[in-house]
Amino acid sequence: MRTIIKVTGMSCAGCRASVENALRRVAGVSAVSVSLEKGEAAVEFDEGKVSAERLKAAVEKAGYKAS
């Protein structure tokens, strides 16, 4: 499954990398692409192992707002 998460609070390439790393650490995530310009993360994951809420929580734990 693929979802788009809106991410606010990113201002540089380091922020982008932090969000990517946080999402990649979630078990069941197969691919992550974060766009600093769009303020969003595209995430591919195994729907049976990962929920959208868990993905949002990973972004928020990294220090950013997710919706």
Query: Could you spell the SSE succession in H and E letters?
Result: EHEEHE
Assembly type: single chain
Strand order of the largest sheet: 2-3-1-4
What's the overall geometry? globular
Task: List low-confidence stretches.
Answer: none
What is the annotated CATH architecture?
Answer: 2-Layer Sandwich
How many DSSP-defined strands? 4
CATH topology: Alpha-Beta Plaits
Mean pLDDT: 97
Strand percentage? 25-35%
> Could you tell me how far the N terminus lies from the C terminus, measured between alpha carbons in angstroms?
17 Å
CATH class: Alpha Beta
Q: Give a quick account of the main beta sheet: strands, pairing sense, barrel closure.
A: 4 strands, antiparallel
Fraction of residues in helix:
25-40%
Rg measurement, Å: 10 Å
Number of domains: 1
Could you say which structural class the secondary elements and strand pairing correspond to?
alpha+beta
Helix count equals 2
Task: Give a short synopsis of this structure.
This protein has one domain (2-66): Alpha-Beta Plaits (2-Layer Sandwich), CATH 3.30.70.
Structural descriptors:
Alpha-Beta Plaits, 67 residues, four-stranded antiparallel beta sheet, alpha+beta, globular, 4 strands
Task: Tell me what the structure shows.
This protein is an alpha+beta fold and 67 residues long. The chain has a single domain (2-66), classed as 2-Layer Sandwich (Alpha-Beta Plaits), CATH 3.30.70.100. Helices cover 33% and strands 33% of the residues. It is built from two helices and four strands; from the N terminus they run E-H-E-E-H-E. It has helices at residues 13-24, 52-61; strands spanning 2-8, 29-35, 40-45, 65-66. Strand 2 (29-35) and strand 3 (40-45) form a beta hairpin.
